[in-house]
Design brief:
It is built from 13 helices and 9 strands. The chain is of the alpha+beta class. Among the domains are: 75 residues, no CATH class; 101 residues, PH-domain like; 49 residues. The strands form 2 sheets. Strands 4-3-2-1-7-6-5 form a 7-stranded antiparallel beta sheet, with helices on one face. The longest helix has 161 residues. The N and C termini lie far apart (169 Å). This is Switch-associated protein 70.
């Protein structure tokens, strides 16, 4: 019965004669799994062409094993959902017997279910579960996976219907290769009317049905690398249109909104691109990459363990070598002890001889230190003398600078005094001129007397102003004279300082020679006080004053 059902599901012709011939000599009781496998491989599985319904095949296998292995405790999922979880387990399990699903694939499946339920993924909760799982075994069997999902440990707060819909969505994606599905309007080819259909996108075909229960199929759109999809503008009152072009036929379809339209166009275009590249569906390719990554990590881990074993073996060899070296070192230490005794005896003899030499060296060193101390004292006295001379030189430079500044101040005062004398001479000439004009005015006629009297008053006022200015100039001259006396005192002080420094320098062996100013001409005395003019300059000024006076007369 088992063989006949397998042949029926797998679309393989059943050969009862071959079955009888294979088991003719087996009269020792029931056939075990190992006894049935050779027949199954040779007469059934080798003849499979791949044109069978995989879901029906899975249902038959489920019927054979579910009753014996399924947990008797009540679950939050139905038997149909448990069957779908079992099929997903067969898809995600490792390719070795007994079949198990590793923690990485468990996390992938639970994440898909949580996403389908619209809940948030609890990574911390799964990490605790993963730690507890890794301490006991490598993974879960199919029945343990069904218990885990049916217990609701990772779907708390969700009702049975939500969990069932999530399992069905993941089953459609992973097992039935459903990439996208949903209701859309399709335009007919003959009647040109628009009818709502349930579309199901798979890796190489788009099927459309009357409703989502998939009972009444209305047609297929065969996809290949030559197909394309493009958006259409709104027309005939229909919106969100797009067109699927195939070799022999084109299909106009209207989505419910712009978002669904873009999602369908993108999904169909991705499917066509995968067909052109010859790539498997995304979930199968991702599963293959995860398996390859696990195999790579396992190989690296095995290589690491092999290296650790080699290192351990090398470490043991090193330990043996170290033990041999230790024994050799102990023997060498014994020999070294004997040599040490001999060396100590020799060292005592050498030490006595070196002590005498050391005493002699200390005496010589003490004498050298006394000589160095004496030389250091002489050097310090010489350096002190040089520093005193440098300080004296700096002070002398400052005194010369003060003398230079005093001479500059004297020259400034001299120029100011000359300017004041010139102004005073000009004012005196002007006063004499006014006086002559006044006498001429007195000698004028009586008719002009009144007018001249008025002019005289004005001129007298001008004369008073001139006299005031003359007095002011006299005051300024006196102030300039006082400044000159002060500058003269500074100059005398600077000269005295220079003379005192000259005497000091003479006592220090003549190392520094003072720079002295040249001789000065004797000062001339005028009726207004001392002045800094030479005789030639004074004679020139007298001639100039007499010339101005003669001109005014």
């Amino acid at each position: 019965v088992l063989s006949h059902n397998l042949c029926t599901v797998l679309n393989v012709p059943h050969d009862p004669v071959a079955l009888e011939e294979h088991f003719r000599d087996d009269d020792e009781g029931p056939v075990s799994n190992q006894g049935y496998m050779p027949y199954l491989n040779k007469f059934i599985l080798e003849k499979v062409q791949g044109n069978f319904d995989k879901v029906e095949f899975n249902r038959m296998c489920w019927t054979l094993c579910a009753k014996k292995n399924l947990c008797k405790s009540p679950l939050l999922i139905s038997d149909e959902d448990a069957f779908k979880v079992w099929v997903i387990f067969n898809f995600l399990s490792e390719d070795k017997y007994p079949l198990i699903i590793v923690p990485e694939e468990i996390e992938y499946l639970l994440k898909k279910l949580t996403e389908a339920m619209g809940a948030g993924w609890q990574q911390e909760q799964f990490d605790h579960y993963k730690i507890a799982l890794n301490t006991s075994r490598e993974g879960l069997s199919a029945w343990e996976l069904i218990d885990l999902i049916g217990s609701g440990q990772f779907s708390k707060g969700m009702d049975r219907q939500t969990v069932s819909m999530a399992i069905n969505e993941v089953f459609n994606e992973l097992i039935l290769d459903v990439l996208k599905q949903g209701y859309m309007l399709k335009k007919g080819h003959k009647r040109k009317n628009w009818t709502e259909r349930w579309f199901v996108l798979k890796p190489n075909i788009i099927s459309y049905y009357v409703s989502e229960d998939l009972k009444d199929k209305k047609g297929d759109i065969i996809l290949d690398g030559n197909c394309c999809v493009e958006a259409l503008p709104d027309k005939d009152g229909k919106k969100c249109l797009f067109l699927i072009k195939c070799l022999d036929k084109s299909f106009e379809i209207s989505a419910s909104d712009k978002k669904k339209k873009q999602e369908w166009i993108q999904a169909i275009q991705t499917t066509v691109n995968l067909l052109r590249a010859g790539s498997p569906p995304p979930h199968k390719e991702a599963r293959q990459k995860r398996k390859e990554l696990r195999r790579k990590l396992l190989a690296e881990q095995e290589e690491l363990e092999r290296q650790m074993r080699e290192l351990q073996t090398a470490n043991e060899n090193k330990q043996k070598e170290l033990e041999t070296v230790r024994k050799q070192l102990e023997a060498a230490a014994a020999r070294a002890a004997e040599e040490e005794k001999k060396r100590l005896q020799t060292q005592v003899e050498l030490q006595d001889r070196f002590s005498l030499e050391l005493e002699r060296e200390k005496m010589v060193r003490q004498k050298m230190e006394e000589q160095v101390a004496q030389k250091s004292s002489e050097l310090e006295q010489y350096l002190q003398r040089v520093r005193e001379l440098e300080e004296m030189y700096k002070q002398l430079q400052e005194a010369l600078e003060d003398e230079k500044q005093a001479r500059q101040d004297e020259e400034t005062v001299r120029k100011l005094q000359a300017r004041l004398l010139e102004e005073e001479s000009a004012k005196r000439a002007e006063l004499e001129k006014w006086h002559l004009k006044q006498q001429q005015t007195i000698q004028m006629t009586e008719a002009e007397k009144q007018e001249l009297e008025n002019q005289r008053m004005i001129k007298e006022q001008a004369l008073q102003v001139a006299m005031q200015q003359l007095e002011q100039l006299e005051l300024e001259r006196k102030e300039a004279l006082a400044q000159y006396e002060e500058v003269k005192k500074k100059l005398e002080t600077a000269a005295n300082n220079t003379k005192s420094w000259k005497d000091k320098v003479a006592h220090h062996e003549g190392l520094i020679r003072l720079i002295e100013p040249g001789s000065k001409n004797p000062h001339l005395i005028t009726n207004w006080g001392p002045a800094a003019f030479t005789e030639a300059e004074l004679e020139q000024r007298q001639k100039s004053w007499k010339g101005k006076k003669a001109t005014s007369e």
